[in-house]
Amino acid sequence: METILFLAHTEDDGSLGRAAFEALSGATDLHRQMSTATFAVGIIGGEVSAAATAVSGCGASAFYAVAGSDFAVSRYATDAAALDAICRAAGATIVVAPATARFNRVLPGVAQRLGGRIDTHVGGFVVNGAELRIQRGYYRQRMIATLSRTVRPWFLTVDGGVFPRWEGATATVPIQSLTVPVGDELRKTKVVGFKAPLANAQTIRPDAKLLFVAGVGWTKKQGDGQVHLDDAATTILGFLDKANASLGSSKSLVDQSSEGQNVFSFMSHLNQVGQTGSTPRHPKGLSTCCHGEEPHVVGWRFIGERRAINLDTNCGWAQGKADVLYVADAFELVRKVTELL
User: Fold this and answer.
1) pLDDT of 262 strictly over 80
2) Whose CA is closest to 243, among 335, 166, 165, 326?
3) How far, in whole angstroms, is CA 145 from its chain's centroid?
4) Is the model's pLDDT at 260 over the cut of 90?
5) Rounded Cα–Cα distance for residues 273 and 298 (Å)
6) Across residues 218-238, what is the average pLDDT?
7) Separation between Cα atoms, residue 41 and residue 28, nearest integer Å
8) Can you tell me the distance from the alpha carbon of 269 to that of 273, in angstroms, rounded to the nearest whole number?
9) How would DSSP label each residue in 26-66?
């Protein structure tokens, strides 16, 4: 009989992040499909009581925790020791965890310690009888493979945006606190703090609720016959700052940089969305100054609600590719929306 273990780590304030709740939704869905399996939860962090309470109603029969100042920060040695202890205590055969930077770094090592295997970027679970199969995207999510393994424990990390956020009532559950000895050999790495880029320098935000995509129209001549690159840059960055949105781009816009033309300094091919770019997962998307050609829209297939701004009533977005099309000047509309935010 399989034992499903959901793993999570706390954030700085002791809560769980969005990725953890989404991965928990996937774990509960897997437990529903594997009705004979047992279900457990394991949490690591400095203080885990609030996090454990938040997920207490998920239906797990056991809750394990490793808490303390040594586990409050992301450090491979202590994280690996804590997760190893939880997996052994739970007798886990299937481990589901969010694909956070912290877990992406440590879980492959934990799988190696336990003689298991790990698969990342899991996009779904399918149970055929007693056999678990996972779905995983390849080639920028354009090919979906179905995989199964017989080796246990099987570690599975779930990307954000694959499952909806888990919502449920709290319950009173016993939490088994595990003691993990931490000697100096596990504290060789000192965590001294975080250093993050400025908000206006970080334009790719996977956790943002909105994807804002700029097209090449921002660099074209406007109604007065002039190009307004500086105005376009200020308008785009102002909206990103107020809406806390993630920035995407059409291929034609980022290609201008490689062709030596003067384009936006805050944008690179990493922002590119579409057939030759990324396929991000955000609840909503807003396209501006882009005609919505099919290669570009390929990158929108995981966006929940699509809206677009374009002056052309016959653009690709109007051909059923957007839920709402605003026929308007993007400069004026985005500035107005920014004022209202």
Assistant:
1) no
2) 335
3) 20
4) no
5) 8
6) 89
7) 11
8) 9
9) HHHHHHHHSTTSEEEEEEEES--HHHHHHTTTS--SEEEEE
pLDDT-derived band at 268 (thresholds 50, 70, 90) equals: confident
Phi-psi region of 45 (alpha: psi -120 to 50; beta: other; left: phi over 0): left
Tokens 């100042």 correspond to what residue? 69
Q: If phi over 0 gives left and psi between -120 and 50 gives alpha, with beta otherwise, what is residue 3?
A: beta
Which helix H or strand E contains 121, and what residues bound it?
strand 117-128
Q: Are 182 and 78 in contact (CB under 8 A)?
A: yes
First-last CA distance in the chain: 52
What per-residue confidence (pLDDT) applies to 227?
A: 87
Residues 6+ apart with CB under 8 A from 74: 9, 101, 102, 105, 191
What is the arithmetic mean of pLDDT over 262-283? 85
Instruction: Find how far residue 64's CA is from the centre of its chain.
Output: 25
Pick from 282, 254, 258: nearest CA to 267: 254
Q: Is the pLDDT of residue 142 over 80?
A: no
Q: Is the pTM of this model over 0.85?
A: no
Determine phi and psi for 227, rounding to 5 degrees. -90, 135
Q: Which long-range contacts (CB under 8 A, 24 or more apart) does 27-35 make?
A: 27/58, 27/96, 28/58, 28/59, 28/166, 29/125, 29/163, 30/4, 30/94, 30/96, 30/125, 30/127, 30/132, 31/4, 31/59, 33/125, 33/126, 33/127, 34/2, 34/4, 34/127, 34/130, 34/132
Query: Is the pLDDT score of 290 beyond 80?
Result: yes
Record the tokens describing residue 82, joined without a space: 């804590």
Q: Cβ–Cβ contacts within 10 Å for residue 93, how many?
A: 19
Q: Tell me the C-alpha distance between 257 and 128, whole Å.
A: 49
**Structure tokens given for 80:** 């690996």
* Average predicted confidence (pLDDT) for the chain: 91
